[in-house]
Amino acid sequence: ETGVTQTPRHLVMGMTNKKSLKCEQHLGHNAMYWYKQSAKKPLELMFVYSLEERVENNSVPSRFSPECPNSSHLFLHLHTLQPEDSALYLCASSQEDQGTYGYTFGSGTRLTVV
Amino acid sequence: GQNIDQPTEMTATEGAIVQINCTYQTSGFNGLFWYQQHAGEAPTFLSYNVLDGLEEKGRFSSFLSRSKGYSYLLLKELQMKDSASYLCAALGDSNYQLIWGAGTKLIIKP
After folding, report:
1. Residue A2 — pLDDT band, cuts 50, 70, 90?
2. Distance in angstroms (rounded) separating the CA atoms of residues B9 and B62
3. Cα-based distances in Å from B78 to B13, B47, B59, B83, B103
4. Rounded CA gap, A24 and A6, in Å?
5. With A76 labelled, which of A90, B61, B72, B105 sits at a CA distance of 20 to 30 A?
6. How many angstroms separate the CA atoms of A85 and A78, rounded?
7. Per DSSP, what are the bridge partners of residue B7?
8. Do residues B110 and B14 make contact, with C-beta atoms less than 8 angstroms apart?
């Protein structure tokens, strides 16, 4: 496989559930990102990992918990979410010293909280 | 503050030319990206500009004016498959400070 792979593609969960989103990149990149994409709004950066260490957390609620066990894998653990958390969650990767090549995105997980 | 403005939606005709504008305000500037996103799919990289001027890549060109905080994406010989959202993003002081616009939905009509 190549590129950035996200699973699952679609997820419906209740407000009391716990679930995890998975992201895997096969590009040898050293930085990974979680973004939230809501309709007609700009992409919102949630978390950044560089060399497996979290370097930025844009004041995301604690009901979202990231995990980066190695440079190829990124998880987003979800618990007690709210309906307003329904959105497309995108994972991306980049090579830090080649930032001008931009990010490679996964296809996203469409999350619906009921 | 930091922000990016681009039109919400544009309509164009197959075979024609369309220009999607983007204005930005950032603290620090290290380049301007354009991405294409088809419905239900990942955003894909189209172009990167850091110096003033026009960069041409096939049917797509991207222009940057740093003094005006302005960029545009020019699409020529439009095809139906160009129907997508086009996202403008400015890179700030670090690799992580990518400020995004809300995207422009481009509708191509036959």
Report:
1. low
2. 18
3. 7, 17, 8, 9, 18
4. 7
5. B105
6. 10
7. none
8. yes
Q: Measured between CB atoms, which of B31, B44, B102 is closest to A42?
A: B102
| pLDDT(A50) > 60 | yes
Tokens representing B59 are: 């049917």
The set of residues, in sequence order, having a beta carbon less than 8 Å from that of A10 and lying 6+ positions away, is A109, A110, A112
Contact of A111 with chain B, judged by CB distance below 8 Å, is answered with no
How far apart CA A60 and CA A79 sit, in angstroms, is: 13
In residues, how long is chain B? 110
Closest alpha carbon within chain B to A34: B96
List of residues 6+ apart from B66 with CB closer than 8 A: B29, B51, B52
Q: What is the pLDDT of residues A51-76, one digit of tens each?
A: 878 877 778 999 999 999 999 999 99
Average pLDDT over residues B13-37: 95
* pLDDT tens column, B31-68: 999 999 999 888 999 999 999 999 999 999 999 999 99
Q: CA A58 from chain center: how many Å? A: 13
Residue B30 near residue B84 (C-beta atoms within 8 A): no
The residue behind tokens 């469409």 is: A110
